[in-house]
């Protein structure tokens, strides 16, 4: 579906206002924070006129790409954060190649409405960030430009992400080009609390021995909860059952863009089996349904595991509990699955429909991707993530910035640099696991992406929260309250189908 037709303002804006979900919290700017190991990259042509496909040796090697349209050296970026400040390292590399970024400001709640208005008024930005609802919802609404004609996905720059990019195939085209895989949902826990309570089983050690499964996870939680009635094994979050369902090898909703199918797996035996298992945990009193943020959820020492995305959840809990050893483990392996399936997350950019400077947009993507796989950056990230102490880059005395955050004394003036107390070191073993959970070519995990949150906000709310009374919470009912999944499935399968049918029609016609 090559996007060449104009989009009618009234139709697009109406559809966006009615059904577009606000920007998701999982998609944040990919900063050059080496401590998190999630950064961006470099390379570009300095004229703004040559093809992005031939601007470096990593692009266009197959000869199947064409020159991307360009209207100069200014990249128009629309977002709820400014790349010039939030992604300064990448913008500086972009500037080294002769480009600059013009910021079009919006808010998280108005993000998609603003994008639709700009496209409809023939004033499209050149680059926007990926949000969960970008695919398939945004793609189905003709908001983006396919990149197949302009990027060689077999090139050294993109080959490592090729399978991940293919997850977002829509009608044989690729609109979203993630440059980075991010760790998905993990289980964070307080290892010190386990030791203090005399429990010798360490979940991370079970994982290291290849024994971290649904059953061993439950065994640890049962032992923990036997300590008292106010002890809980797990606190689910907004992801609820999704990452556990994925561990069976079957996502709840799967967009097979190549074959133009949207598959609702609510009736699949694997989904049923997983939901029954989670329901069992709740009925046995192992689940704490009261949500708290990651910096609070483990403080009372009564809840063992918390289900969060790794980067935000682990660091928040770790900083809040510096006197305790905070660890994390992947979602446990389903013993009946043929592989160790893991939920995944990604980050990257899309080029809006009608963009005038696709060449500059692709150049920025390349810079980010090349930085992501740069060996020097990767080694720096490891050193900083595992360092016991880190210091702020700018010296408090001479104000000179030093890139190496591990140096205590300013190399320019000799003053002591300001300690960053809002972080805690990650062990080498945990760091290695974090990298494996971000490795698109991992031999340990087979990554799956569940598209269940990529449709309308109403469907997402039904899956996560249910109705105003909490009924119909397909992903949360069994896990949080012990509600029968069979009853939920039978009651709401038709409703979910009704949400999906318009998207099926759009995909078929793409």
Question: What would you say this structure looks like, in words?
Answer:
This protein has 18 helices and 14 strands. The chain has about 500 residues and is an alpha/beta fold. The protein has a domain at about 10-180 and about 345-375: 3-Layer(aba) Sandwich (D-Maltodextrin-Binding Protein, domain 2), CATH 3.40.190. The strands form five sheets. Strands 3, 6, 13 and 14 form a four-stranded mixed β-sheet that branches. A four-stranded mixed β-sheet has the order 8-11-7-12. It has a two-stranded parallel sheet with strand order 1-2. β9 (about 255) and β10 (about 260-265) form a beta hairpin. α1 runs antiparallel to α4. It is globular.
Question: Summed up, what is this model?
Answer:
The protein is built from 18 helices and 14 strands. With 510 residues, the protein is of the alpha/beta class.
Per the principal axes of the C-alpha atoms, what is the gross shape?
globular
Report the top-level CATH class of the domain at 9-181 and 347-373: Alpha Beta
Number of strands: 14
Major sheet: size, sense and barrel closure?
A: 4 strands, mixed
Under CATH, the topology of the domain at 9-181 and 347-373 can be stated as D-Maltodextrin-Binding Protein, domain 2
Taking all residues together, what is the mean pLDDT?
88
Low-confidence stretches are 1-62
Give the C-alpha Rg: 23 Å
Question: From the 3D coordinates, which CATH architecture of the domain at 9-181 and 347-373 would you assign?
Answer: 3-Layer(aba) Sandwich
């Amino acid at each position: 579906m090559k996007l060449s037709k104009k989009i009618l303002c009234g139709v697009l804006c109406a559809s966006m206002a009615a059904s577009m979900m606000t920007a998701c919290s999982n998609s944040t700017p990919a900063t050059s924070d080496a401590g998190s190991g999630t950064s961006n990259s470099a390379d570009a042509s300095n004229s703004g006129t040559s093809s992005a496909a031939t601007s470096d040796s990593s692009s266009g090697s197959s000869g199947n790409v064409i020159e991307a349209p360009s209207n100069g050296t200014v990249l128009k970026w629309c977002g709820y954060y400014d790349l010039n400040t939030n992604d300064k390292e990448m913008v500086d590399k972009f500037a080294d190649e002769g480009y600059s970024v013009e910021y079009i400001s919006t808010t998280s709640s108005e993000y998609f409405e603003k994008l639709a208005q700009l496209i409809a008024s023939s004033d499209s930005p050149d680059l926007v960030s990926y949000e969960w609802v970008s695919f398939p919802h945004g793609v189905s609404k003709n908001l983006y430009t396919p990149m197949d004609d302009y990027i060689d996905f077999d090139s050294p720059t993109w080959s490592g992400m090729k399978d991940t990019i293919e997850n977002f195939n829509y009608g044989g085209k690729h609109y979203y080009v993630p440059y980075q895989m991010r760790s998905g949902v993990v289980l964070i826990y307080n290892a010190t609390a386990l030791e203090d309570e005399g429990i010798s089983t360490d979940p991370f050690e079970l994982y290291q021995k290849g024994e971290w499964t649904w059953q061993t996870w439950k065994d640890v939680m049962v032992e923990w909860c036997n300590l008292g009635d106010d002890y809980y094994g797990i606190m689910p979050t907004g992801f609820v059952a999704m990452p556990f369902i994925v561990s069976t090898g079957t996502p709840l909703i799967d967009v097979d863009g190549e074959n133009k199918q949207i598959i609702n797996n609510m009736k699949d035996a694997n989904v049923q089996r997983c939901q029954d298992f989670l329901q069992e945990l709740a009925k046995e009193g192992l689940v704490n349904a009261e949500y708290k943020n990651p910096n609070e959820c483990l403080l009372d020492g009564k809840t063992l595991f918390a289900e969060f995305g790794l980067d935000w959840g682990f660091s928040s809990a770790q900083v809040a509990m510096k006197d305790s050893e905070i660890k994390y483990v992947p979602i446990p392996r389903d013993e009946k699955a043929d592989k160790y399936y893991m939920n995944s997350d990604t980050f990257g950019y899309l080029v809006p429909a009608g963009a005038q400077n696709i060449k500059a947009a692709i150049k920025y993507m390349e810079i980010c991707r090349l930085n992501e796989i740069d060996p020097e950056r990767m080694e720096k990230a490891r050193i900083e993530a595992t360092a016991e102490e880190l210091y702020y880059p700018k010296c408090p005395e001479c104000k000179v910035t030093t890139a190496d955050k591990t140096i205590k004394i300013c190399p320019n003036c000799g003053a002591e640099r300001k300690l960053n107390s809002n972080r805690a070191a990650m062990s080498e073993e945990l760091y290695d696991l974090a990298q494996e959970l971000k490795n698109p070519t991992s031999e340990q995990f087979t990554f799956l992406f569940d598209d269940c949150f990529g449709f309308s906000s109403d469907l997402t709310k039904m899956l996560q929260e249910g109705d105003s009374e909490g009924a119909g919470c397909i992903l949360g009912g069994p896990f949080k309250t012990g509600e029968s999944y069979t009853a939920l499935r039978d009651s709401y399968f038709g409703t979910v189908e009704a949400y999906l049918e318009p998207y099926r029609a759009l995909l078929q016609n793409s």
